[in-house]
Amino acid sequence: MNQPPASEQTVRTADARTTAMRSILGGMAAQVIATATRMGVPDTLGDGPTAAEDVAERCGVPSQSMTRLLRALAALGLCAEDQSDQFALTEAGNLLRRDHPASLHGFARMFTDPVMLGAWNRLDTAMQTGEPQFNDVFGAPFFDHLAGQPELSALFNTSMSQATRAVGATLPGHYDFGSYETVVDVGGGDATLLSAILTSHPHLHGTVYDTPSGAAQAPDTLDEAGLARRAGVEHGDFFDSVPHGADLYLLKSIVHDWNDADASLILRNCRAAAPEHGRLLIIEPVLPDVVPPDARPGIYLSDLNMLVNLGGRERTRAEFTELCAGAGFEITRFVPLPPKVGFYIIEAAPSPR
């Protein structure tokens, strides 16, 4: 076997080390972001270069400590030090501001919160048992824990809304909603996705169906979008039933939360509610059969997050096909959204009874 020249091998080893170290230190990087967003650092930096001393004063910490935090953020590509102790947000850093139209502030807060990360310390146990560890760490299942903490539940809803915006911006242009009149967004949260669909298709009427805590912000979202006359909110548990008779049912980022038995129950309830001409759209990432060289790690980290916190999983095409077939649906097509969005539209029709 031919060996590369020593100089080339040295460079490759250095690059490999950089990649490994970036991953090894990823947990620390997440805590830098968590601290910055909790303290409001991105909002304080605002639109222009700001002295570290001014940021420190507004955030109530010593100037030297703030300089150290800002330099770590700069090394992560979230801000830049324009001159000594003068910092400005990068385009990526701007997404951590509360007032940015594409803000990820809530998402960053939620996914760096101890409630999201606490069970990750038991990932090895989750792998051995196949069971979520959140219950053991926090004393209740994930969504029950959220329901008992209104502020945390609201933060989770905000994070899901922010994660859904990219899907809402692209979904209406990648699927023909023209033949439908009514749509139910099952587990639709604050109505971000339903609002995007109804805004793009004025003939449609829709319903968000979720628990009271899950849909707490939905009325405001619909009102702000001017959709109160064409959309409403119904409360319930999709493990018991879903509203009957709609032309189209949506499940966005719902199926991956649950193991096969629970996911099948949700799908069967959608099948019981859907007319024979109805359709189901599952909006989820789809795992490739083999990890590609250019794979984005998010979907695989999400897969493990589902394992440790909820007992769910991300799925391949074959796994979605089998899951739907067992619940009375036949998948008719997989429609990829743009790669940077990272989701698929999985269209399913009721199987003949």
Automatic annotation (TrEMBL):
**Any idea which UniProt keywords this protein has?**
Methyltransferase, S-adenosyl-L-methionine, Transferase
Signal peptide from the UniProt entry: none
Q: Where is the O-methyltransferase dimerisation domain?
A: 22-96
Outline the extent of the O-methyltransferase C-terminal domain. 120-330
Q: Where is the active site?
A: H256 (proton acceptor)
Enumerate the Gene3D superfamilies for this protein.
1.10.287.1350, Vaccinia Virus protein VP39, Winged helix-like DNA-binding domain superfamily/Winged helix DNA-binding domain
A single GO molecular-function term is: protein dimerization activity
> SUPFAM superfamilies in the record, alphabetically?
S-adenosyl-L-methionine-dependent methyltransferases (SSF53335), Winged helix' DNA-binding domain (SSF46785)
Which GO BP annotation is one of this protein's?
A: methylation
- InterPro entries per the UniProt record, alphabetical: COMT-like, COMT_C, COMT_dimerisation, SAM-dependent_MTases_sf, WH-like_DNA-bd_sf, WH_DNA-bd_sf
Family annotation (PANTHER family): O-METHYLTRANSFERASE CICE, PUTATIVE (AFU_ORTHOLOGUE AFUA_4G14580)-RELATED
Record's protein name: Methyltransferase
Q: Which organism is it from?
A: Phytoactinopolyspora mesophila
